[in-house]
Specification:
The chain is α/β, with parallel strands linked by helices. The chain has one domain (7-53, 63-99): Rossmann fold, CATH 3.40.50. Helix content is 35%, strand content 17%. It is built from four helices and four strands. It has helices at 7-12, 26-39, 54-61, 79-87; strands spanning 19-23, 44-48, 66-69, 96-99. The strands form two sheets. A two-stranded parallel sheet has the order 1-2. Strand 1 (19-23), helix 2 and strand 2 form a beta-alpha-beta unit. The longest helix is centred in the N-terminal third of the chain and has 14 residues, at 26-39.
Length: 105
Amino acid sequence: MGAGPGQLSLLIAPFVAEVVAIEPEPDMLAEGERRAAMAGIGNVRFVAGSSDDLPALRSPLDIFCAALMGQSFHWMVDKDRVLEDLSAMIDEADGVIAFVTPRRI
């Protein structure tokens, strides 16, 4: 969610079967696709959409093991609704929603 140009999506891609990067801005999607191609990463799918589109995206995207958000959650107006919509898209048995924040060491 709020994938931007794919920083987190491309970072996690080598460790999972597939990444679906959801981003509302077309320029960010294009940049993410460009970065994936340059890095030779083929298991990231960039999808146009925002947190408001989650109910419509649920069926075509299926169920996920995890939802990751970097620095995007604070932009979402109705956070409770977003979490409810995401919960409906996450595997009930062992799925997770994770908020990832940068940390400099």
